[in-house]
Amino acid sequence: NEYKSYLSAKYFERLQEMPPEVAAEGTSPPSQRDVKPRSLNNTFWLTRIVFLRALAFIYAIAFSVAFFQNKALIGQNGILPISAFMERVRNHFKVAKTYPPLESFFGMPTLFWFVKEEYTDVALDMFSLVGLVFSVSVLLQGAANMLILFTLWVLYQSLVNVGQRWYSFGWESQLLETGFLAIWLVPVFSIKPLPVNTPTSKVVIYGYRWLLFRIMLGAGLIKIRGDACWHDLTCMNYHYETQPVPNPLSWFLHHLPSHWHQMEVLGNHVVELVLPWLLLVPHRTITAVGGSAQILFQIIIIISGNFSFLNWLTIIPAIFCFDDGYMSVLFSNVTRTVTHVTDKVSRQHRERPKRYQRAVLNGMIGALLAFLSIPVVQNLLSSSQQMNTSFDSFRLVNTYGAFGSITKERTEVVLEGTSALNLEEKGIQWQEYEFKCKPGRVDRRPCLISPYHYRLDWLMWFAAFQTYQHNPWFISLVGKLLEGDHGVRGLIAFDPFINSTKPPTFIRAQHYQYQYTSFESPHYWNRKYLRPYMPPVSLSHLRSYREQNRWFRKVKPLEMSSLFRTISFPKVDFMVGGLIFVLIILFLKLFSREMDMYYESSFGNAESQIKKLLATAEPLDEPKEKVE
User: Omega of the bond prior to 101 within 30 degrees of 0, cis?
Assistant: First the structure.
């Protein structure tokens, strides 16, 4: 109480030196004045804090996925090594093994142009860890600068462009587009939640609304131009059973009545084809209604299946459908007061050079978005619409869409291995491999992993309705399992040969049809054998094909430290779960009133901002002990 009284006295002292129109707003100290949410209408200071924390949360998930999986997927000894990929790219651009010319770099922008082959694994770890540290920093502070957000964007751009098949999905481009726009929201160097000289750019705000509009409308148009089941309202009869990675609730949703599924399809069409137009209306209430509908829709999808961080990411641009008048309910009165005064000062006393610089910058960003949107709009209007396509190598403005066609039955590829030395032996025992989330054993409950993502499990879903000849990565995966590769073993849940002295001698792949069981069954799945997917193969069978594609260990990769080599994979799974849990708790707590004590418990933070923004007077001469 003494400390608050002291700070209140300092506050009134500062008011004497403020401009009259600003001081009129501060007739009582921040801890006592009640700033109404409507006084923050049409400002986006608090909205930017929420947005930055949400974006940092997704970045943290994406970089954690990269850290725990990328070395086994694209590392020096991975399933699709970066070195082999970069060699093909260099041959395409006719580049020697030196620094690439600008044409090659801009054709495929990635920092791996500058990484030597033997340092690939170190670079993968470093990029992921630096990205993870920066992401958590922004998540905790609710603030960033251009340097931090540009670094995050460059690091993830570098990973996506060498990620090959594992990074070939729409949410990667969507995160890069979202991250690129965020760079222009914040100051160049300052890291403050409320930077007085950098109000939230209206160009970027409308850029995010335009992004959300394209995502939703593109998804709606690809459906009505695609599978006939979207017209006869039957797609949802199959979706929950045949989606890539179901979760436990998917089983229950599948058993809802048929007329309920028809209503789901109708609701989908309304949300994706009609409601996105509300996002473009320049009226705060109408825009908020449109944003609320999209957020609710994404939450429903999140609880119905494991779609990586796609739907979590799609919520982020919808945040800018709500101004501070709406977002202020997430913050304390102290924060609302400081925000209100900051906005007053920013409007009336912001430095003119900085104001003009920002105006020029916003104009350039707006012109760039308009120019890059031309092929995107043409694609939306085209009857041969492409989904999840980038029209520039930096993925700045992209086209999106999902589930233009729905598979009507679920098939799965089941890998089996044996230690038999000869396939002519009688009584050969084939043992199944079990993946982390992909359906396998019929009695295993579907996993709940979103927003985390298992990239191998996701591609196994695509492999099931194609052939192994169309998926070279599948052949490489089998080769790694035949070698007993430690990294690749970490990507699956159960290797039946992990305790054996030798890896399997032969591996085959079988094709099964999977269906959900009824309520009476103790299991989740029924499965029926269809046909062989890939015949039994050994390392000798694959040697020439693997050498042709450079899928073998050429040099011993350099590791960051022995620590990462000695982590057992059960511990890695525990670390993944713990990391996701901590990040989600932080994400939720940071938006609650209790966590907003970051501003209020240290009342000096609010006072300090007012001091720095509005006054230059010397501090009062008070005893040091009292201040402490």
Answer: no
pLDDT at 566: 34
CA distances from 621 to 7, 9, 72, 583 (A): 12, 12, 62, 43
- For 152-172, letters b (16+ CB in 10 Å) and e give bbebbbbbbbbbbbbbebbbb
| Beta bridge mates, 226 | none
**How many C-beta atoms lie closer than 10 Å to residue 561's C-beta?**
9
Residues 6 or more apart in contact with residue 326 via CB below 8 angstroms: 37, 288
**pLDDT tens per residue, range 285-301:** 999 999 999 999 999 99
- Provide φ and ψ at 537, rounded to 5°: -135, 155
The confidence band for 98, taking pLDDT boundaries of 50, 70 and 90, is low
In this structure, what token pair is assigned to residue 68?
A: 């725990």
> Any alpha helices (H) in 16-119, and if so which ranges?
20-23, 45-74, 82-93, 102-107
Q: In 3D, which of 69, 99, 97 has the Cα closest to residue 159?
A: 69
The continuous run of DSSP H or E covering 262 comes out as helix 258-269
Residue 61 CB-density burial (10 A; 0-12 exposed, 13-18 middle, 19+ buried)? buried
Residue corresponding to tokens 């073998």 = 552
Residues 414/512, Cβ–Cβ less than 8 Å? yes
- The values of phi and psi at residue 273, to 5°, are -110, -25
From 303, 296, 308, 175, select the one nearest 244 (Cα to Cα): 308
From residue 344, how far is each of 25, 166, 265, 597 by CA, in Å?
Answer: 9, 48, 47, 23
As a residue count, the chain comes to 628
Global pTM?
0.86
- Digit-coded pLDDT (tens) for 496-546: 999 888 999 999 999 999 999 999 999 999 999 999 999 999 999 999 999
Q: How close are the terminal C-alpha atoms of the chain, in Å?
A: 13
Closest CA to 393 of 372, 378, 374, 418: 372
Q: Are 450 and 306 in contact (CB under 8 A)?
A: yes
Structure tokens at 157: 């751009």
SS3 (DSSP) at 198: coil
Please report the pLDDT score of residue 551 as a whole number.
80
* Best CA proximity match to 402, nearest among 475, 274, 307, 292: 307
Q: Which residues contact 440 (CB under 8 A, 6 or more apart)?
A: 412, 414, 432, 433, 434
How do residues 371-385 score in pLDDT, each as one tens digit? 999 999 999 999 999
Q: Is the pLDDT of residue 434 over 90?
A: yes
User: Are 324 and 43 in contact, with CB atoms under 8 Å apart?
Assistant: yes
- Which pair of tokens denotes residue 598? 């970051």
Query: How many CB atoms are located within 10 Å of the residue 496 CB?
Result: 17
Residue 332 belongs to what H/E stretch? none
Residue owning tokens 């690091």: 155
